[in-house]
Amino acid sequence: MLILPAEEEDIWRIYNVVNRKFLNLNLFVPHDTRLGGSSEGWLLTVNEDYGITLYRPIFIVEEGKISRNKIIHLPPLFPPNPIRDDDIETRGTYVRKFTIFTVDLVGNPDDLTIIVIYGEYRQLVFIRPAKDNKWTCITDTHIPFDDVVYYNNQFYAITMKGKVLSFNVTNVTNLNIKVITEEIPKDDEEKEFLGSRSLVESRGELLMVERYWYVFDTGDCENSEDCEDCEDSFDRFTVKFKIYKLSLNGPRWIEIKNLGDVALFLGDNSSLSIIASNFDGCLSNCIYFTHDDDTTGYGPLGPCDLGIYSVARGLFNWNHSMNSNAIAEMFERPPIWLVPKINVF
């Protein structure tokens, strides 16, 4: 499901991109800016003191309402110094991405491990709420990360330059960090347009998806006289995706040009892979994507870089067929994918 901001404060609407309809459900998350991501049905918000709150909505299908949000409060995430009371924009972009792993989802669902990419330098930290009372840094260098995923009994993280590290957090004093692959060489054109990299497990394999976008000046900035580099006048659109799978022979990345009966969902969420034929109307061999957070910010068109990409044809279908009113509400709170927990009565 794709959740989008409603006109009302703290209310989100739920959009089914497969049948192109809004559900008769609303989601309540008390937050005034961009959500810090979603993973395993959890949503993340950054509070005024830079503490983290996790919300897991639980839907009741029969009544068409939200029964309750399960909530977890976490300690402040290395806040900037000083903290400004009006620093909403910084809080909104403070968490780049996060992922959650549950050791025993049935027997002990509250035993979570949360990995977060945060801050201006996109640092990697973790916390286990049942065991830890503070965040722990995973690396001690300013290497910016793009994404992190749990795969094959350990975590994998990819840097902005494409290097992949593995680690585990069972023993806080020994994270067993290893370099899995080095950077993938790129020509000058690819370096210019490469925007982000995502990791996703798909049918037992680890995939890496490179997203290329074009940033252009719309000329719409109201302060155009002294505003050559003003973010307000720039927008972006994705122009290409490249997909790789990890081969343990090396290990190395191998480019693939066909996903088969698979659809990927990419954005500020933990990337998701599903079997398309299990969902009526879901397009196979496609990438469903939203306008994820990046350094270009949002221009006059808002977080408009969202749609469906056909891997086989290399073509885009923009905006998931949503009307202009829905798009207009996205400026301060961009949409995000959410895997809901549903109780049917």
What does this structure look like?
With 345 residues, this protein is mainly beta. The protein has three helices and 26 strands. Strands 4, 5, 6, 7 and 26 form a five-stranded mixed β-sheet that branches. Strands 21-20-22-23-24 form a five-stranded mixed β-sheet, with no helix packed on it. A four-stranded antiparallel β-sheet has the order 3-2-1-25, with no helix packed on it. It is globular and about 50 Å long. The two termini are 20 Å apart.
Summarize the structure.
This protein is mostly beta strands and 345 residues long. The protein is built from three helices and 26 strands. It has helices at residues 88-94, 188-193, 324-328, and strands spanning 2-5, 11-16, 21-28, 38-39, 42-46, 51-60, 65-76, 95-104, 108-118, 123-127, 136-137, 145-151, 154-159, 164-167, 178-181, 194-202, 205-217, 234-247, 252-256, 262-266, 272-275, 286-289, 307-310, 315-318, 336-337, 341-343.
